Amino acid sequence: MSHTDHFVTLNPTLTAALDSFSSTRPLLLASDFDGVLAPLVDNPKDSRMQEESAAALARITGQDGITVALVSGRAIADLHALAHPQPGTILIGSHGAERGHVNADGSLHHDETPLPDSAQERLEALEDYAEALAATTRGAWIEHKPTAVVLHTRLADPDEAQRVNQALHSWAHDSRLHVMTGHNVVEVSVLKATKGDAVTALRHELQARSVLYLGDDVTDETVFATLGSSDVSIKVGSGDTRAVHRVNSPQEVSFTLTHIADRVNADH
Questions:
Q1: InterPro entries of this UniProt entry (predicted)?
Q2: What is the C-alpha to C-alpha distance for residues 149 and 155, in angstroms, rounded to an integer?
Q3: Structural contact between residues 33 and 83, judged by C-beta atoms closer than 8 angstroms
């Protein structure tokens, strides 16, 4: 596929926004992983980035004045293992509760933030309850993170999924924990963190003049809400959103990233 084909695919309004963004320095390009760079799959361990998106990010990462960040609900070690990000990429995991970066040799540098003893005790109680709850429903399973657990119900009967989701919500509320809901998942954390807070903090650290963010889930709306007129917000897929622009699929994300890669390599 030629570069001209990429231009035809994108909405003209979005194309203009991408061109303006690509000419700005310093800038931050940040994206969710699942459902954006990688198509959604039943087993999260099977997620793989679109080849075209990986190739485009490889051309963008390392350009002067450009920082690439992957922002995910996944634990940061899981994100690093599945995304195979380029050296220099910033990784934000667990909805902002974890952060690190990719070293020059491709290994992960994890910014460690130990949990206070009281939070660790709450996490252990949460893990025990969630595992017992998931065991009552075929197709439900628990993902463990450093500060949270995630109840996955994509493969469960819809009525059973609703039952266990409501039970976990109620338990978390009674325990004064923090709940986030996404596509067939309920995440409960012992710490309050959002993708929006994490991206804002990174933006200020980098003194980025412009931020582009791609996201598909309700948790990504916390980022869209922080972006202004100098930024580019792109919702992937259907649903209500605060984002200004929209693309339909991870394949269209790859066209978007290729367009940016073409621009930044042509201009610099």
A1: HAD-like_sf, HAD-SF_hydro_IIB, HAD_sf, OTSB-like, Trehalose_PPase
A2: 17
A3: yes
